[in-house]
Amino acid sequence: MQQLEIKGGLSNEVDLPVSLAGMEFRVGPGAFKVGGEDYELAEEQVYTVEGSESEPVFVSGYLVKKVSDGSVALLVDERVFGEESYRFEASAPYQLLHLLVRASVPAGVTDLNDAEVTVAKVLVDDEPEEPEE
Length: 133
Prior knowledge:
mainly beta
């Protein structure tokens, strides 16, 4: 599992624990910040990737806010190559907060440790940049 660490400004900070086990990935609960707003993933989220024996599968795990009640959840889009991905539209029941997990799973894979999995964390840049003279 590759960790993609992005130095964010003070408005974003996403550093939730993500782990892999077989064809499951788990996102641990915790607080995070997007766009200057505080959010909390209240419970661990678990997703089991179905995969495919004959075609590669692409998986995207998004942190979203449910429009109906404001709670945070993990929305997973799993699709084979060529299928249309989930669209976050204005009328959708979810507001996109952050793309947290992305996986490219080759055909026939039965363990995500054998796939290309990237976790995108946004870390606060604690060291302010020195102004140029």
